Structure prediction request, 545 residues.
Amino acid sequence: MIKFEHVSKKYATGFEAIQDVSFAINAGELVFLTGHSGAGKSTILKLIMLMERASSGSVQIENKALSQMGSKDIPLHRQQIGVVFQNHQLLSDRSVFDNIALPLRICGYDTVDAGRRVRAALDKVGLLSREKYNPKLLSTGEQQRVGIARAIVHKPKILLADEPTGNLDPQLSAEVMTLFQQFNQVGTTVLVASHDLNLIRRMNCRTLTLKEGRLVDDV
Amino acid sequence: MSKLKSPQPPLRGAMQHKVSAEDKRRRWLQHHQEVAKDCLRQLLGSPVSTFMTVLVLAVALALPSFLFTSLSNITKLTDSWESENKISLYLKLELTESEIDSFVQRLLLRNDLVAIDLIDSEQGLLEFKEFSGFSQVLDSLSENPLPAVISVLAKDNSEAGLATLQQQLLAMAPVDEALLDLGWLKRFKGFLLVIQRVVITLSILLAFAVLLIIGNTIRLNVENSRDEILVSKLMGATNAWVRRPFLYTGIFYGVVATAVAWLIIELALMTMQTPVLQLAQLYQTRFQLTGLGALGSCILLIIGVSLGWLAALLSVNKFLNKLEPK
Prediction:
C-alpha cells in the first residue's frame, strides 16, 4: 500500500529531513511511526500526501509512483487519504457538521448522502449530539475526535495521523487509539506518527523508529 | 465527555466508496449553484463595502464607455456633414435681385453641380434671427448686413475636384467668397483621431484599475479563507474547486459594476439629449444622440465580466501556486 525505497528529502534550506528511508506497509496494516521531534515523522507523512516531493528515491502508494504524478493528479490522490492533524485544523467559521462534510463536498457526494455519512462518522466518534456546535466550543478531546471523523468520513483507503494524541491526557489518548484500531479492523491502512512511546508499547503494533532522518528500527 | 461507541455497521449507502460519473456531474452543477448562492449571500452580507467597490468599478467602467459613446456620436455627426459636398457662395452685397437670379440660372446650367439652393439676404436674416438669439441687435440695424448665399452641391466629391470647383466658382464675378466646409472638417477629424487615442489610452489604464480593484478585493477574500483553502487542498480539492467561489465573486463584481456603469452612461446621455437637440437645431441639422446600443452594451458586459473573472483568477492562482509541492 505504502512503499518507500531509499527516499531522501532535502529542503530548500539545506536541512536533510530524511535520508535513505526504505519500508513497506501492506494494505490493512496499523503501523506507528515514532522518533523525537525533528526525526522526520512529519516529512514522511507529507511525502505520502504529496505535500512535499522526495529529493531522491521513490515513494509508491498503491503501486503508483508519486514522482509520476503531476499537479493535476494530486487532488485525486489526496482524496484516497484521510489525515488527522495534531492541531486538528478545524474551520471555526462553520459547524462541526459542515467541517466533517467538507471532504465529501470536495469528493462530490450528493448532499443527502453526505448528511447520512457525516452523521455516521459523528456517531462513530460519539459526537452525534454536537453536530450543530462550532468546533471552538468543544473540548480539545472532542475537537480531535471531530478531526478524526472528518478524516474518515469519505472512507479513505489510507488514514494518516500526525501526533493525534499530542494535546490529550492518557485516557483520551487511549480512546483515540481505540478508534484507529477500529478503523483498521474494517480494512483501512493506518499510519500514526507519535512520540508517545508508552502508548505505542501498549498498542503492541508494528513500529517504525526514526532517528535524525534515518530509519533505525522496524519491529 | 460523551462515551465512545463501539463501531457499528454503518448504513449500507455509506459503505460505497466510489462516486459515479453521473453523480459527479450532477454534484458539480450543484456545487456551482451552492457556490454562486454562497458568494451572493456573502456579498450582500456586507452591503456597504460591496456597494462602494461596485461604485468605484462602475465609474472606472463608465468613464471610457461614455467617452467612446460621445466620440462615436461626434464621428457620426461629422460623417453626415461629409456626405454633403457643399460649397457656400457668399455673393457680393451690392448685387440686385435680377443679377442674383441670372447668376443662379448660369449655375443651373453647369453639369458639375447637383443642387443649387439660394438663401437670399432677407431669408438669411430671418433664420439668423430665429436661431441665433440676436434678433434685438439685428432689429436695431438699419440695413440688412447679410449677403445672399448660394449653397451648391458638387457632383465630384473628391477633395481635389472640390478644391478646383471652389477656385472656379470664386473666380466668377458675383461671388465674394466661396467656402468649402471640408477644410475645418479635415482639421476637426485630425483632432478627433488624437482624442480617440487619448480615450483608448485612458480606457486601458482604467481597465487596469478595474483589474487591480477586483484583484485586491479577491486577494483579501483569499487571505480570509486561507485556512479553508489549505485544509481543502489537503483533502484533495482541485484548484478549480478552490477557485470557484472567488471566480463567482469576480464575475459578480463585473456584472453588477457593468450594470451600474450602463445606468450612469444612459442617464448622462439622457441629460445631454435636450441641449444637444437645441444645438442641432441651431445648425439646422437633425441629430439624435445614440447611447451604447445593444452591441455596445454587450461589449461593455463582456469586458466587465472578463476583467472580474481574470482579476479573480490571477489573485487565487497566485495563492494556489505557493501550495504546489516542491
Q: What stands out?
A: The CA atoms of residues 4 and 131 of chain A lie 39 Å apart.
